Amino acid sequence: MSLAQMLYQWADDRFDLDDAEEFGGKAFPAEDSFLLGEIALFCFVMLALTGIFLGFFFEPSTSATTYEGSVAKFQGEELPAAFASVLQITYDVPFGMFIRRFHHWAAHLFVASIGLHMLRVFFTGSYRNPREPNWIVGTVLAILAIGAAYTGYALPFDEFAATATGIGFNVTTAIPVVGDILAKVVFGGSFPSSATIPRLYFLHVLVIPVLIVAFLAVHMVILIRQKHTEAQREDDIASPASDGGDRAVDREDDTVVVGLPAFPNQAAVSAVVFFLTLATLSLLAGFLPVHNIAAYGPNNPAGTPDLIMPDWFLMWLYGFLKLLPSWLSFTIPVVGIHVSAEFIGGLGIPGLIFLVIFAWPFIDREEEPVHFTADPLNRPWQTSVGVSAVVFIMLASLGGMNNLAARATGLSTGTLNPLLLAALILGPVLAFGIVYRTLREPSTGSAGEVLGDD
Ligand code: HEM
């Protein structure tokens, strides 16, 4: 017996590699858009690795420390330790600037790929019976990813990020009944207080990543158990059966998944995606600067920067805060609970949106299990809902950038806001109408005709 065989035998006795071999033979449908989930996965791995590097140097404290690093304008000044440590990472730690940028761009790509992955699953109807649980787990992952990015944004404790993070604090305190307690737990009471950065740091490096790992594990186990959806086949397919002979798979037979074996074919494709993700992020980190904290300076509780902006993926929430008029606030009679416009915009509407997302597979309910993906062009109302949701989020994000829009158009934000609010309400309705009408056009045939039964 060769050494390799002996090693294999040793491992096989302990890990039952035959089972792994069976997994290696599992089919992965060859569909490029299925790689979006993998990109998200790889981004998470890279975030964890670069985060460990940053964790060696970052100091989660707002206590004053004398800065002795190489940024001339701060030398000898008393700075919050968190801010000073990010300056040190950026300008004094070898590879620090590169790794910080890499972590930043990986976070953006993580959220973007999750968003696109979610859209792919939505438009192809891959959430339908039996995959509703994975849609729900995925939605939790999307919320956690946004939470991770939000808590990380605050950590350098510079003027710009601290002010933007403060908006989240205000929204939290605006939650009826439990707002103050929640603000104490998450932000350590007032904002910014000496407890704010340690709390957000704890959430950012431990609580949220552990939850992401746990939910990801469930996401993957469900995926492996249920197998991938597969695109509608054009014809019957001849596939090598396990006994070595050829067996034709009927194009309608969804009990069998046709695709590349997990090992080695799909593993090779995944390796390419991994290295492409690594290369893209390296390129971005090498050439595109991020959040220039030396220019913003440390958090100054007395001042407010001209332009306060959250990251792009939180812009839609910021848009609700900016566009909803304050007269929406009301007090519930008898119990005397105050519901502010800030709460309605910052958490009420987003909460409702996520509730609809969670419930979606049960709204677009399917009695029988479906294992083929659907063609979005054959699903007029579902596709129309998807397109109008995208239009809604984009218009809400535009609302979040109303100050930039005001600069660009020469109008005041007071004039622009009602127009943007009207667009936010009418735009999605219009988008729904146009897409629905287009997909129902008699010339393209009805959904049933396009699908065909032959
Ligand atoms: C951290 C975030 C996430 C990661 C890393 C992740 C990863 C993956 C991967 C690798 C796959 C298999 C390949 C693919 O279909 O793309 C997958 C499938 C799936 N994901 Fe996610 N996902 C995440 C978030 C989400 C979200 C936000 C949703 C929806 C709300 C979702 C719903 C699904 C569903 C339903 C499947 C099965 C699709 C099918 O069989 O065609 N996932 N996910």
From TrEMBL:
It holds the Pfam family Cytochrom_B_C. It is a multi-pass membrane protein. The keyword Metal-binding applies. Residues 7-232 form the Cytochrome b/b6 N-terminal region profile domain. One of its GO terms (biological process) is respiratory electron transport chain. InterPro entries: Cyt_b/b6_C, Cyt_b/b6_C_sf, Cyt_b/b6_N, Cytb/b6-like_sf, Di-haem_cyt_TM. PROSITE patterns: CYTB_CTER, CYTB_NTER. Residues 249-444 form the Cytochrome b/b6 C-terminal region profile domain. GO terms for molecular function: electron transfer activity; metal ion binding; oxidoreductase activity. GO terms for cellular component: membrane. It is found in: Membrane. The chain crosses the membrane at residues 39-58, 105-123, 135-155, 201-224, 271-293, 313-336, 343-363, 383-404, 416-436. Keywords: Electron transport, Heme, Iron, Membrane, Metal-binding, Transmembrane, Transmembrane helix, Transport. PANTHER family: CYTOCHROME B (PTHR19271). This is Cytochrome b subunit of the bc complex. The gene is qcrB3.
